[in-house]
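Much of our argument rests on the idea that a fold can be written as discrete symbols. This step matters because it turns folding into a mapping between discrete strings. The record that follows shows the chain in one-letter code together with its fold in token form.
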Amino acid sequence: MPTDSHTQAVLNHYHKALTFCPHPAKIQERIAALHWTLWDIPQAMEH
């Protein structure tokens, strides 16, 4: 099981990817899933 720090690192990479392609649905979906695993439900709902 990934640690919170690993999940946060992956989340940071996805946010960087958004700077290159700001509206890809797949990246937004993965960001939402990562926020969900961190129990950050408001951010998960936003993405």
